[in-house]
Input
Amino acid sequence: MNLRKLRLMAVSGVIDWVIQRISSIVISSYAIWMVFWMWSVHDIDYHAWIALYSNVWMQIYSVITVVATCAHAWIGMWTIGSDYLTVRQFGELATLVRTSYNIVCVVLLLLYVVWILYIMWNLT
Output
């Protein structure tokens, strides 16, 4: 694929669309897995949760799901910001408001990823 086609895909929103669909599949599969696990375990208590999340594959799956959730959320939040935080609503402050909004969104998403990394890899 040449650079021009790649640039066209990025501009037309194809990459965002693909990220949204792939992240939806990851999030849905995680939710289905958790429902199946809760249905199959008879006594769900602290020890059952620790046993589940002590597995490296579950830790990796959880981190991948959180990253997919953040990617999915970022595309949605960016779209909302670019659609509704405009010059029409905010006048000359629109760029400042939109930039501040995007920075807050990115910081919150990064904190979410750091938090899940801390939780998943520091289980006791």
About this structure: The CA atoms of residues 36 and 92 lie 52 Å apart.
